[in-house]
UniProtKB/TrEMBL annotation:
Location of region: Disordered: 28-89
Biased composition (Low complexity): 56-67
InterPro entries linked: AAA+_ATPase (IPR003593), ABC2_TM (IPR013525), ABC_transporter-like_ATP-bd (IPR003439), ABCG_dom (IPR043926), ABCG_transporters (IPR050352), P-loop_NTPase (IPR027417)
Full protein name: ABC transporter domain-containing protein
Natural source organism: Mesorhabditis spiculigera
Iron-sulfur listed as a keyword: no
Composition-biased stretches (Basic and acidic residues): 71-80
TM segment ranges: 463-482, 502-522, 543-562, 582-601, 613-638, 709-734
Length: 739
């Protein structure tokens, strides 16, 4: 198998024209040449094909009179010539983002892995567990500016893979060979993203924003800081009007569970976000999927208008209606990974007639006809279907359509160094991101904060949850006095606080992050911002609620549970100082637990997996947090877990806050060591504690806790938080950039 990994070469200036093969070039970027006559529409020259052409009411090459009459009719209809040459491209090499980009691809060969045997058995036998299946086989083609190009084919024909190769996206795990060119320019995947836009099949947006807010947000990041706020708003107004979104611009987009705008409006919103910077190339992946005929026509009409404005529009499409199909200028048909047809959309029926598959009923949708021919029919064997497809693809290769495409793509790769330097467009001068990192963080923080405010129900539910939990616990431990028989109550309520601060915040955090992940990937692929900018902005916006809710919880628990007079009398620190430290520990614990949620969401990328994984990590840390088992008795092989348990550091900080300064507890003497017998399992530890029962630090030592290390514990909590968030942002970056 011959081929190279996808690279981009420079194009030559060729005298050859893309004739009827590529349809009408009605965009403003193409001029008819007076020096070179257009190549006539290709027809097969065999006698059989001539007969088929006559039977289809298409005569052989017309006479001069007929030609003049036809030309006069075309002039009356104001249809431009179908001739085209590279010299007619109105592109400015000094401006890499100027319109007029011609995309050429040659000998694209793609293989995808298929698992054929067990990974374990393959490792033992030292064999690879995968075999490769060919999905694209030596595919070549051209997409011209000013035209709407459709890529069609049955399921599994390779149309989406071809689009991915052209965009150089979603190729993970594939073996890709061949060459893709853009306007005589050596270009890589990063440069392709700079000069093109991509409308994906699934529309991913933040449902809490309105249509207008979404476009304004995209404008702030896509257009950059060289434009004033007024200029950005003017562009937003123009795009809203152009996409027909004026009536719904102040409507929330909605989500899967809260419907708002229609799917057609959502698809047009996707186009609006992508064309803000007027990119020269637009790729679309099945933009009409899931839409009815009326909405599909509206969406494709938008694509047609963009093409007429000078863009190179390439789109995969599935089962278009006749009205939608009529809007296409150029058509590429894929079958079994090969090109079955590449030429003008309005001549595809003529090609299939010459191949022996005429459209008997002229009222049938042409798209339905050739899709039926290319698809495997019921009762047909795989060999029969393969033979029919092979005959059609070979017919295309030997036809004038295939020969013209083949010759053009072959000659396109022969370029001199002089021509390369003359037409070179410096894409490296284009910044991948139009805005600074600081501006990205600010915009993303503002968007995330607005989404938080737009969800009062979620905030109210969380507030209700916090208050109910706090009031319930406060009622259980209501005004507990500090005596020898209530020490266990104090220890229990402190550990309960640590547990609540974890489970009340870790899972909501996972849900929010995993739901936003598709939006992050789409916006990153569109060069809107860095993943780290999103992470920081989202963290800053969520910090507000993760500070307020722990404070409310702490106020209720502290003043319902503890007797302030007992705390003042038992130790040297006032109860208000203890309250301040109590709030601080709960806040740090909530921050650490949200960090666990961020890390789990970014590493797993899936809500179901993350929610199953978190308990596996958290429960061992909870068990070795200092309450359920005396840390002096932990087996040696599990002892390392207590040093990474954030439960332990938060619990130890609470114990330091309440017991490190206590020198006497009422009723706790050497004669009354009931509590000591209950909790001190180790005889030596129990003896040491009984020597000074009622002394807070000794109680802590008996539980393997260090007195007077409050701020060290806070430092450990903050350190764990920092490490977890660093892991989260790295995992997010890897997950987003490698998709």
């Amino acid at each position: 198998m011959q081929g190279r990994k996808i690279i981009c070469q420079c194009l030559p200036t060729l005298p050859v024209k893309l004739a009827d093969i590529f349809g009408s070039s009605s965009g403003p970027l193409i001029e008819a040449s007076d020096k070179e006559a257009p190549i006539p529409a290709p027809h097969d020259t065999t006698e059989t094909d001539r007969k088929k052409t006559k039977s289809s009411s298409h005569s052989a090459p017309p006479s001069s009179a007929t030609t003049n009459e036809t030309q006069s009719k075309k002039s009356t209809d104001q249809k431009p010539s179908r001739s085209f040459s590279y010299s007619q491209l109105r592109t400015n090499p000094a401006d890499p983002l100027s319109l007029g980009k011609l995309v050429v691809w040659k000998d694209i060969y793609v293989e995808v892995p298929i698992q054929t045997r067990s990974r374990i058995w393959s490792f033992i036998r030292r064999r690879k567990p995968f075999e490769y299946r060919v999905v694209l086989d030596q595919v070549s083609g051209v997409a011209t500016p000013g035209q709407l190009t459709f890529i069609m084919g049955a399921s599994g024909a390779g149309k989406t893979t071809l689009l991915n190769v052209l965009t150089q996206r979603n190729l993970k795990g594939m073996r890709v060979f061949g060459e893709v060119l853009v306007n005589k320019q050596l270009i890589d995947a990063a440069s392709m993203r700079k000069i093109s836009a991509y409308v994906q099949q699934e529309d991913c947006f933040i449902g809490d924003l309105t249509v207008r807010e979404t476009i304004v947000f995209a404008a702030n990041l896509r257009m950059g800081q060289k434009y004033s706020h007024k200029e950005k708003l003017q562009r937003v107004e123009k795009v809203i009007s152009q996409m027909g979104l004026t009536s719904c611009q102040y409507t929330r987009i909605g989500s899967r569970f809260h419907k708002s705008i229609s799917r057609g409006e959502k698809k047009r919103l996707a186009f609006a976000c992508e064309i803000l910077t007027n990119p020269p190339i637009l790729f679309c992946d099945e933009p009409t999927s899931g839409l009815d005929a009326f909405m599909a026509k509206q969406v494709v009409a938008v694509m047609k208008k963009l093409a007429l404005d000078g863009m190179t529009v390439i789109s995969t499409i599935h089962q278009p209606s006749s009205q939608v199909f009529e809007l296409a200028d150029s058509l590429i048909l894929m079958a079994n990974g090969k090109t079955a047809y590449h030429g003008p959309a309005d001549e595809v029926t003529e090609f299939f007639s010459s191949a022996g598959f005429p459209m008997v009923n002229k009222f049938v949708n042409p798209a339905d006809h050739f899709m039926r021919v290319l698809s495997r029919s019921e009762g047909e064997t795989e060999d029969q279907h393969g033979s029919r497809i092979e005959a059609i693809t070979q017919k295309y290769v030997t036809s004038s359509y295939g020969e013209t495409v083949g010759n053009f793509t072959h000659n396109s790769f022969e370029v001199s160094n002089t021509e390369r330097r003359r037409m070179r467009e410096d894409y490296s001068a284009l910044n991948q991101y139009k805005t600074s990192f600081r501006w990205q963080v600010w915009i993303l923080f503002y968007r995330a904060l607005r989404c938080v405010i737009r969800n009062p129900m979620i905030l109210n539910v969380r507030l209700f949850q916090v208050m109910i939990c706090a009031i319930t616990i406060g009622a259980v431990y209501l005004q507990t006095p500090l005596r020898y028989n209530t020490i266990q109550n104090y220890v229990g309520v402190m550990f309960n606080n640590v547990r609540d601060m974890n489970f009340m915040f870790v899972f909501p955090c996972i849900m929010v992050f995993t739901s936003d992940l598709p939006v992050i990937i789409r916006e990153y692929k569109s060069n809107m911002y860095l993943p780290a900018a999103y992470f920081i902005g989202k963290n800053l916006a969520d910090t507000v609620q993760y500070l307020v809710f722990p404070f409310i919880y702490s106020v209720i628990i502290f003043f319902m549970t503890f007797r302030l007079s007992d705390l003042d009398a038992a130790g040297e620190y006032t109860s208000w100082k203890k309250f301040g430290k109590y709030v601080l520990v709960n806040t740090c614990m909530a921050t650490t637990s949200t960090s666990v949620g961020y890390a789990a969401a970014c590493i797993c990328g899936n809500l179901e997996i993350a929610t199953q994984l978190v308990p596996l990590v958290v429960v061992p840390l909870l068990v070795l947090g200092g309450l359920f088992i005396n840390l002096w008795t932990v087996p040696l092989y599990f002892r390392w877990i207590e040093y990474i348990s954030y439960y332990r550091y938060a619990f130890e900080a609470h114990m330091n806050n309440f017991f490190s300064d206590i020198t006497h507890i009422e009723g706790c003497t050497n004669a009354t060591d009931k509590y000591c017998h209950q909790i001190h399992l180790d005889p030596e530890v129990r003896k040491a504690a009984i020597d000074a029962v009622g002394h807070g630090p000794n109680l802590m030592v008996s539980m393997k806790m260090r007195p007077d290390v409050f701020w060290i514990d806070i430092g450990f909590l903050l350190g764990i938080t920092l490490v977890l968030r660093l892991i989260a942002v790295i995992a997010l970056h890897i997950r987003v950039t490698r998709r």
